[in-house]
Amino acid sequence: MNDVSTFDWRAHFLASGEDADLPIVDAHQHYFDIEQHYYPWLNDRPLRPFRYGDYSSICRNFLPADYRRLSGRHRIVQTVVIEGEWDPATPADEVRFVESLALHEPTLAAMVGQVWLDREDAADLLRLYGDHPLVRGVRHKPVVTSLEAWREDFAAPGSMRDPRWRDGYARLAENGLHFELQAPWWHLSEAAELARDFPDVTIVVNHTALPADRSEQGLAGWRDNLALLAREPNVALKISGICIQGKAWPVESNRVVVNDAISIFDVSRCAFASNYPVDGVVNSLGEVLDGFKTIVRDRSLADRLALFHDNARRIYRLT
């Protein structure tokens, strides 16, 4: 149920307290048109290894009408479109594509553009994005490694410690852009260094820092590294992307992840997001949103509004 009318759904929810009235700003979703545009990970074969397993089911168009249909009874008032790993040869074209969708989809409120911070075109792209009314930040997934191979001095080319990559990152603040970080939790000490070295740049951590290993040891490592990063005041956390391969959205096993993340970062720095249609590999959009609602149902109305609506509006500077 997408709704961007002038009706004050926030006040209505505070009065009713009903989940159905909770206004949602989906802080992380994607639109794909794989028939008209090239997304290497969706168009190429064979498909790449992926944490959710076989993702052939989402290798198709996903456009505003699809999102509207799948959101069902949930009160989606605004969304933020995150770059969808478009053809890296023409990243600015994705901004133009999303802009064309926004002309006809009033809930599409902002986007995050693709950039390759260590490329020669980074400075020009950042200036272009900084001047664009839809773009609030950029994403470039830094080079990472496995937990087994990671070392304290990890500094591979294209990583968060790569001087060339950091030269591009240093231009974010002057263009009024924040940085969306997608990296597994064992790289968060590098992100903490980045946050300290560039205090004028907000880092928004994607997908809860990827707590895929739900063993006791895996969750302990995730919590410790998340707490290390949470010490930096210029970091926010998107609680999303926590589906588990082969399982319906597991409220009980996800409850500990959601509650620990909120405890570590505080309600004021967390925002829920769907990661749709990517999480559609495992779960429906309704299951993802219902799962978050179930986990925080006992929290105050103000906390629920913050997590589903207010914080995303602040982080993405939405009007």
From TrEMBL:
Q: Name one Pfam family in it.
A: Amidohydro_2
The UniProt entry, under Gene3D superfamilies, shows: Metal-dependent hydrolases
A GO molecular-function annotation: hydrolase activity
List, for all copies, the residue spans of the domain called Amidohydrolase-related.
25-318
- Family, per entry: Belongs to the metallo-dependent hydrolases superfamily.
| Name by which UniProt lists this protein | Thioesterase
According to its UniProt entry, this protein's organism is Pseudomonas silesiensis
